[in-house]
Design a protein that fits this description.
Length: about 190
């Protein structure tokens, strides 16, 4: 790996790892443990840790009836406007100095100030983790690639309720625009 590219001008993005979303996974324990280790590694390396959460105002004024993904929120079965719903999973909670971004769409960039924060920190390389692989990770990767960021996806730090979607994205789609590695490989690269 080139001159510590994983540390210089790099940020770790934790995407949609909120309590309400983690609860949807069948087995979240190994996923959370992998992310926890990656966050610790990033902090030791003085790498910015940026949490991106999805959250809306009460009544969902940001959600168009034309938006197939989010219009179902208006039926009242999910409350993605409460503090509890937008809270990051307690075992990987943000610490002082971490940045928390609230987005309004699937991509971490759309409806948020993520790009402004990344540019101000002079970030050129994004390390992606989160839920769901076929949602926020895919959308953020595509938009980040279009914005000319270098991208690493941590395969075991991403999860999707559909294991086949996760597998296909990690093995066939993501490698076209990103380096796809395990958290263990990433950990070794950051301690060599």
């Amino acid at each position: 790996m080139e001159e510590n590219k994983t540390q210089q001008n790099t940020a770790l993005l934790i995407l949609d790892v909120q309590d309400a979303i983690v609860k949807l996974l069948k087995d979240s324990k190994s996923f959370i443990n992998s992310i926890k280790k990656v966050i610790q590694t990033a902090r030791i390396s003085k790498m910015p840790v940026i949490y991106v959460v999805i959250g809306f105002r009460k009544g969902y004024p940001e959600v168009s009836p034309n938006n197939k993904s989010f219009s179902v929120l208006k039926d009242g079965t999910q409350n993605l406007y409460t503090e509890e719903a937008i809270t990051v999973h307690a075992s990987i909670a943000p610490e002082q100095g971490d940045v928390i971004i609230t987005k309004k769409r699937v991509s971490a960039f759309t409806g948020s100030d993520l790009e402004v924060v990344l540019r101000s920190l002079e970030i050129k390389h994004l390390v992606l983790s989160g839920i769901a692989t076929g949602g926020v990770v895919l959308s953020t990767l595509r938009e980040a690639a279009d914005k000319d960021f270098e991208i690493t996806v941590l395969s075991d730090c991403c999860a999707d309720r559909d294991e086949e979607v996760h597998r296909i994205l990690m093995t066939k789609i993501f490698p076209r625009q990103a380096e796809v590695i395990s958290s263990e490989e990433w950990y070794v690269n950051n301690h060599s």
